[in-house]
């Protein structure tokens, strides 16, 4: 359920962000709504912190606003995303992938691959 909620809030944030970028009237109201939706999306699921990357792509390449203006608009979103990332790292300190984990995964993959090749009778 949190995936759907976070996804919907990211979509609302991007919609309001594009409205703020394109409109002259009510620009600040759209921007505040976009920022609020983005913050709520990150509260629902921290992976929503990638929304500023999507907003940058939409704003810079599709709406074609100047880079300085895009960065000025996205700076508060980046601050919120960094705060969310720090909070997630503090709350879940042992979630990184170690070299040992990677080595075990590659070993399992190689064993599976050799089992598949030997059972099919083909060699590479």
Show unreliable segments. none
Cα-to-Cα separation, first versus last residue: 45 Å
Shape: elongated
Number of helices: 5
> What would you call the structural class?
mainly alpha
**How many whole angstroms does the radius of gyration measure?**
21 Å
Mean pLDDT, to the nearest integer, reads: 87
The biggest sheet amounts to: none
Whole-number tally of structural domains: 2
Which key phrases capture this entry?
5 helices, 80% helix, mainly alpha, 124 residues
Task: Describe what you observe in this structure.
The protein is an all-alpha fold and 124 residues long. The chain folds into 2 domains: 2-93; 95-124. The protein is built from 5 helices and no strands. Helix 1 packs antiparallel against helix 2 and helix 3 (51-63) packs antiparallel against helix 4 (67-91). The termini are far apart.
Secondary structure: elements and pairs:
Elements lengths: L1 H21 L4 H18 L6 H13 L3 H25 L7 H22 L4
């Amino acid at each position: 359920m949190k995936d759907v909620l976070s996804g919907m809030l990211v979509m609302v944030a991007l919609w309001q962000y594009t409205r703020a970028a394109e409109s002259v009237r009510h620009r600040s109201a759209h921007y505040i709504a976009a920022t609020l939706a983005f913050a709520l999306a990150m509260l629902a699921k921290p992976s929503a912190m990638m929304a500023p990357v999507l907003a940058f792509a939409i704003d810079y390449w599709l709406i074609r606003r100047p880079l300085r203006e895009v960065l000025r608009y996205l700076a508060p979103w980046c601050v919120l995303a960094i705060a969310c990332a720090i909070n997630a790292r503090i709350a879940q300190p042992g979630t990184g992938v170690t070299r040992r984990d990677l080595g075990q995964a590659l070993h399992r993959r190689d064993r599976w691959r050799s089992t598949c090749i030997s059972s099919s009778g083909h060699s590479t």
